[in-house]
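Reviewer 2 asked us to include a model.

Predict the structure of this chain.
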Amino acid sequence: MSRVLVTGATGFIAGHAIEELIKGGHDVRGTVRSLRDPARTAHLRRIADSLDGSLELVEADLSEDTGWEAAVAGQEYVLHIASPFPAAPPRDEADLIRPAVDGTLRVLSASVRAGVRRVVMTSSLSAVSSGRPRDGERSRSEEDWGDLDRSAPYAKSKILAERAAWDFVTDHPELELVVINPGLVLGPLQHAAARTSVALVRRLLNRELPAVPQLGFAPVDVRDVARAHVVAVEAPGAAGNRYVCAGENVWFGDIARMLSEEFGPQGYRVPTRRMPYWMLWAAGRFDREVRLGLDFVGSAELASSDKARRELGWTMRPVEETVADTGRSLIELGVVRSRS
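Predicted model (structure tokens):
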């Protein structure tokens, strides 16, 4: 089978992509910033061993040139998944944007020199819809781009990194590029150290919020996102395309209700009453993570995954399953406090 490099191997999406690739019989190489702490990669080695698969881990950092030539050497495909994911808005947006853009160009440049056939890059629905009006009627698709002038730093980093990638392959047509634009990625964690968007679920199960803001999301299961990446490697017609992978709008209150129904009998008192805007604003003065949601109160996230379904044969599992599996993994890994 094919030889595939996955960047940012210890990340949320990357770990599931590695598992999916190994299941498909691919030889996988993954990049990590450091191999000095075996505990950070132990879950990946367990996955490879359990599937009797081929997994090699190498050091390469998006902020440095060192390591990338060796990382891509001999690889047919690259899944470029690594990108900064902040727990809170950075004080200087350049600290987020620069490594996202420069890191992407490092990976693409090394891929061209190594003769890599195709790069599948993880972008975000933010690169499609950020800063655009949420009027409750228009559904965003691959034809859309976020508004840089009205976007938060994380969304800017995704827009600029993706645009840099498309500009790069315009100048290097020998390299094929496919971009995956997932919505809010939920689903089971493979290890407790992963810093991801499942923090929303953690906050509900830990009752870190007294009530639930009226925020809309287009969630997608990490396992389905991983599968989209692997299909994009193999699909002949995928080159040169973006693919939105996101479900229908789900309100934060609906996620809270799903968690309450699933875990309430186990003693988890999930908040379900709606939080007024003034309360969210007050909390955001002291909590930079909460502050991220202020601009989206009361607006639905509408996105279409029709192209991915039509061209990749991609499907999603029910959001109820995704939410339940997210909560279950957080409890089992000790990320959420036990109620026993």
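The two ends are 46 Å apart (CA to CA). The domain at 3-189+219-246+302-316 is CATH 3.40.50.720 (Rossmann fold). We have added this to the supplementary material.
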